[in-house]
Design brief:
Elements: E1 22-32, H1 35-44, E2 49-53, E3 57-61, E4 71-75, E5 82-89, H2 92-104, E6 110-112, E7 120-124, E8 130-134, E9 156-164, H3 167-176, E10 180-187, E11 190-197, E12 205-209, E13 214-221, H4 225-237, E14 245-251, E15 258-263, E16 269-273, E17 287-289, H5 291-294, H6 304-308, E18 311-312, H7 330-338
C-alpha cells in the first residue's frame, strides 16, 4: 500500500486547558517475590539509586531524579503485579480539581496513604488501569556525575506502555485531561497504538491494543547507545540469565531512538532508551503510521512475548481486546527459515 492510499483516522481534539494539570509520568509500584534479587537487578544492572528501604519495600530513583522515587518495589508472596502507574500534577490545588472532575465522571476516586508522596489520589481509567496522582515528594540530591560513567545508567523515568483492550475510549479519556497525541499506529482503519504526552516529548503514556489492562513496560532514559550496551553487559556480569535481554538492542522506527527491553527476575518488563524528539509546540499535529512504517529499520522480528505478555494490575479484571494482533514475530521468522 502506498502512502497516498493510507487513510488517517479521526483522533480526539487537543485540550490545551484541561480540568487539571498533569505534568509528567512520575512513578509506579511493582510487587516482587524476592526483594533482594530485584534490588540487585534494578541497582546493579540499570543503576537506579535507593532512596529508602525496609524489610518489605524499596524506593528507587534514576540518577538525575531529584524527587524521592520513580519505582517502588514491594515484597509479595503472590503473583508479581503492578499496583498502579502514577503521574505528577503541578500543585496541591490540582489534586482537588482532579478529585472533583473524577467524581463528576463517576470514576469513584479515593485518597490513599502513600509514603513520600503527600496527598495521593487513586482512580481508574475506562479500561480499569489504576492511576495515582500526586503533587509532592521529598527532594534528594541528583547524581549528575554518572558514577564515573559506569554505574548510574538509568537517568530518569520517561513513560509507561499499557496493553489496553479499550484503546479508543482510553485515548479519548486521556485527551480530555490534557494528554496530547504525538504518534499513532493504525491498522485497517483502527487505532492499534497511541503515544500520549504531557512533558513535551513523544510519550508519558503509550496505549497499545491488547488483552488487559496490563503494564507492558516502564521506560527509563539513558544518555547514549553506549549506556544501553553497558546495561546489556551488566546483565551478564551480574549473573542474570541471557534471556533477561528480551528485545534489542535496536532502533525504533518512528523516532530513531536506540533501545533495549529487559525482563526483571519477576518478568516485569523495562525499557532503556536514549531519548525522544520534542513535541511541545501547539501547532504540531499527531503523526499517523502503518505498522510497517513504525517497525525498527533493521534487525530481526520481535519475539511474540513482547506483543503478548505484560504485568497484571492488582485487583483489575482482564478484558480481551476486540481485534487479534497479527504482527510478524521472531518465531514466525524462524519457522519460515527452517522450511
Amino acid at each position: 500500500m502506498s502512502d497516498t492510499e493510507f487513510q488517517p483516522i479521526s483522533l480526539p481534539p487537543t485540550v490545551f486547558y484541561p480540568p487539571f494539570n498533569i505534568t509528567r509520568a512520575s512513578h509506579y509500584i511493582q510487587t516482587v517475590r524476592d526483594l533482594d534479587v530485584s534490588k540487585a537487578f534494578y541497582c546493579g544492572v540499570l543503576g537506579l539509586l535507593v532512596s529508602d528501604e525496609d524489610a518489605q519495600t524499596v524506593y528507587l530513583r534514576g540518577a538525575e531524579e531529584a524527587c524521592h522515587h520513580s519505582l517502588i518495589l514491594r515484597q509479595t508472596t503472590g503473583a508479581p503485579e503492578c499496583e498502579a502507574i502514577g503521574f505528577r500534577v503541578l500543585t496541591e490545588a490540582e489534586l482537588d480539581l482532579a478529585y472533583d472532575w473524577a467524581v463528576g465522571q463517576g470514576l469513584d476516586p479515593h485518597w490513599i496513604e502513600a509514603p513520600y508522596q503527600g496527598r495521593t489520589l487513586r482512580l481508574r481509567d475506562p479500561a480499569g488501569t489504576p492511576v495515582e496522582l500526586c503533587a509532592h515528594m521529598p527532594v534528594l540530591a541528583r547524581r549528575m556525575d554518572n558514577g564515573g560513567g559506569r554505574l548510574h545508567l538509568a537517568k530518569r523515568l520517561d513513560h509507561f506502555q499499557v496493553l489496553n483492550p479499550k484503546i479508543d475510549a482510553c485515548t479519548a479519556f486521556y485527551a480530555a485531561i490534557g494528554f496530547r497525541i504525538s504518534d499513532v499506529i493504525v491498522v485497517e482503519g483502527a487505532l492499534e497504538a497511541c503515544f500520549l504526552w504531557r512533558k513535551g516529548s513523544v510519550s508519558d503514556l503509550v496505549l497499545m491494543e491488547g488483552d488487559g489492562p496490563r503494564l507492558h513496560h516502564a521506560a527509563f532514559f539513558v544518555r547514549n547507545v553506549g549506556d544501553i550496551l553497558r546495561v546489556c553487559d551488566n546483565v551478564g556480569e551480574k549473573g542474570f540469565a541471557p534471556m533477561t535481554v528480551e528485545e534489542g538492542p535496536g532502533r525504533h522506527g518512528m523516532d530513531g531512538a536506540y533501545y533495549v527491553y529487559l525482563r526483571d527476575p519477576d518478568g516485569h518488563r523495562v525499557e532503556l532508551f536514549d531519548g525522544h524528539y520534542q513535541t511541545i509546540d501547539a501547532e504540531l499535529p499527531p503523526l499517523q503510521y502503518r505498522p510497517e512504517q513504525a517497525a525498527p529499520p533493521w534487525g530481526r522480528p520481535t519475539l511474540s512475548s513482547w506483543f503478548e505478555e505484560g504485568t497484571a494490575f492488582s485487583d483489575t479484571q482482564k478484558i480481551t481486546a476486540p481485534r487479534p494482533r497479527n504482527a510478524p514475530t521472531m518465531e514466525g521468522y524462524v519457522r519460515g527459515k527452517s522450511r
